[in-house]
Amino acid sequence: MKDYYKVLGVEKDATAAEIKAAFRKIAKENHPDHHPGNKTAEARFKEASEAYGVVGDTASKEEYDRIRFASHPTYGPFKEKPVNPEIFVSEYLEKLYEAGHGDVQGHLLRNVPKIREQLKVISRITKEKLGYDAFKHKIVEEHAPEAFREWISEEMEIRRSKIVHVALFNLLNQNAVDRKRERDVDRLKQRLENAYEEGRVAGYRDALEMYYQRNK
């Protein structure tokens, strides 16, 4: 599991204020608005947002510390629970998809000017590809990641990180994978992140389609 304290450049016993200050410094230095098109800065911003989403929240930090330092005598061993791992994983994948969907769709539906702006972009792309205007799911979904880079906020990234990691921590406590096998933990985390991102894309598509159908 990634060392989020190292990502933020703080010690494990850093105070909440120190953690927040470290994150704000990295976010300010690497925010996409200040570095358009800079993939390195974008990756650093997302990494810091992910880290802060976990260790910047008291409950998530405690759970992260328990899992990361489980072998430490301060925390003690976990009790084994008889579970069917894939059942739990599937349930969380569905929850994360719904969370990502609701986050983006809700954000857009509360911001009609942004929907209109995005529909103009989609219309232009569609006309360039097909020669006529229409609402094509595939074209909208392909454009979604590029659209997100322009307006997914710091708060949304922190929220995404927190939701993903709460799910990851719960699954580790349910023995979905062996927490000592870092590669397996990373694969599980990636599956959760993918589900959330798929939900985001679907939320973007559905919000735009809803407005498109109402106003065509």
Key structural traits:
single chain, 216 residues, Helix Hairpins, 9 helices, globular
Structure, described:
By secondary structure, the protein is mostly helical. It has two domains: 1-77, DnaJ domain (Helix Hairpins, Orthogonal Bundle); 83-216, no CATH class. It contains nine helices and no strands. Helix 6 (112-130) crosses helix 9. The longest helix is centred in the last third of the chain and has 34 residues, at 182-215. It is globular, with a radius of gyration of 20 Å. 30% of the residues are buried. Residues 71-83 have low confidence and may be disordered.
Helix content: over 70%
CA-atom Rg in angstroms = 20 Å
Q: What distance separates the N and C termini?
A: 48 Å
Multimeric state of these chains? Answer: single chain
Helix and strand composition category = mainly alpha
Strand fraction: under 5%
**How would you spell out the order of helices and strands?**
HHHHHHHHH
Overall average pLDDT: 87
Shape: globular
- Residue stretches low in confidence (pLDDT < 50, at least 5 long) are 71-83
Query: Biggest β-sheet, characterized?
Result: none
Number of domains: 2
Query: If helices are DSSP runs of H or I spanning 4 or more residues, what is the number of helices?
Result: 9
Number of strands: 0
